[in-house]
Amino acid sequence: MTESTAVQSATTGAEQDSYPSGRTSAGPSGGWRELFSGRYLAAASILAGGVALYAMNLYFTAALMPSIVADIGGERYYAWVATGFLTAAVIASMLVSRLLDRLGAARAYVLGFLVFGVGAALNAASPSMAALIVGRVVQGLGGGLVAGLGYAVIRGALPERLWTRAAGLVSAMWGVGTLVGPSLGGLFAQLGAWRWAYVLLLLAALALAALARRVLPGPSGPGRAAEPVPLASLVLLTLAAAGFSISSTVPRGWPTALCILAGLALLVGFVLAERRGGATVLPRRTYRAGNGLKWLYLTVAVLCAGVMAENFIPLFGQRLGGLGPLVAGFLGASVSAGWTTAQLFSVGIESARGRARAIRTGPVVLTAGLLGYGLLQSGEASGVRVVLWAVTLFAAGTGIGLAFPHLSVAAMRSSADPAEGGKAAAALNTTQLIAFSVTSALAGTLVSLGGSALLDSARYMTYGIAAITLLGVGTAARTARRLGR
């Protein structure tokens, strides 16, 4: 499959109102065999392994949480465990391009894996929910760095003909990691050994750090001058996530509404700070009139919002479906399984029109799957109904897998300047983490609205997230219109 596009006509930093037209250049086509050849295998393994470790950890904890709460308490702060991790990951993701310029790929990866490992060790030793949240924040700092590097290093480490395959591989690791994570988490929960689950993550992080030190390059030169950290955007985004998180712990009614409104106002402030600030989280041209990156990033955010339903699916599976921790973990991985399966086929789409169609279809399928899962909710569900839950969640995941690899490559090809293209690619991870952080906090609030009626909580959470993903139908159409030109 030939995936190169004619980007040479673009000027450095120029505005691009459309994505690549799908024209191809001469040269050999890049396939899976070449990506996994001896020449590129080691680099591809690190890129994929870092994202898989991050994703596995995110849903690892979702499957473990019922057991953790039963052991150390703190059910009121259930959503904070995910939100603290994700907010810290957003902060770290903003530093990816800066650390990459200063340290080089090898040292940046080693730093990320070691910080992640320290957080895992703190989690394993946590005596209380407060201590666990601190460990998760440390894990988030390391995880956000290694996940962002997975996208940022593709452009410099691999030839353009392999970008789509590599982007598909890295993106598929979210699915693979979230498939393995809930399953392993459920197994450790079933065995009553949730602390040992974090010991396993510590060992995996140390192994990947050693591999990265051996196979990845160091700094290539003095590099560009470090860009300033976008402090205003960072503070506003962190406060927005905190506002949504607090809304799940205050009494229902006007205090909840007030916290949600405050979170929304802070998100608006974040966008305004980005538009006016000299230092930004997303590439500056994202906010310029006529530039299509804004629609691309919004589509990525909407697709990732749909994944956050998995945080609570193991809980609903155990209490509404009567499932054991291990089986509930597998149920929680259904979305990820659909994501991974669809992506394996989607990366083979060659024409620009086909890619545009995949992007346009993704949010529609995702929303339909979530609505189906919500409609099938019931207390004391039968085995047949639980199977139908898994089917609808799998279908929802296929919507993500259809669109995601093409969005990733479109961002990488949005500029002929390697530095700008790398920043646009790194911003994909930042966008994902922002969406994860905000949606995780909102999901916790929606669950809390059900009070003691867990069936109502499940429906509020599912329909609320489906309402967000429905917005992606419009943003995907705008993105696809440019890609299909």
Structural features, described:
By secondary structure, the chain is mostly helical. It has a single domain (about 35-485), classed as Growth Hormone, Chain: A, CATH 1.20.1250. About 75% of the residues lie in helices and about 0% in strands. It has 18 helices and no strands. The longest helix has about 30 residues, at about 40-70. It is globular. Residues about 1-30 have low confidence and may be disordered.
Sum this structure up briefly:
By secondary structure, this protein is mostly helical. The protein contains 18 helices and no strands.
Any descriptors?
single chain, about 475 residues, mainly alpha, Growth Hormone, Chain: A, 18 helices, globular, disordered N terminus
Using the coordinates shown, work out and report the CATH topology. Growth Hormone, Chain: A
Number of strands: 0
Multimerization status:
single chain
Number of alpha- plus pi-helical segments: 18
CATH architecture: Up-down Bundle
Query: What gross morphology would you assign?
Result: globular
CATH hierarchy class name: Mainly Alpha
Topology readout:
Elements (H helix, E strand, L loop, with lengths): L31 H4 L5 H32 L5 H16 L2 H29 L4 H24 L1 H4 L5 H28 L3 H22 L15 H16 L7 H23 L16 H15 L5 H8 L4 H8 L1 H13 L5 H24 L7 H30 L5 H32 L4 H30 L2
Helix pairs in contact: 2-3, 2-5, 2-7, 2-8, 2-13, 3-5, 3-9, 3-17, 4-5, 4-8, 5-17, 7-8, 7-13, 7-14, 7-16, 9-10, 9-17, 11-15, 11-16, 11-17, 11-18, 12-13, 14-16, 15-16, 15-18, 16-17, 17-18
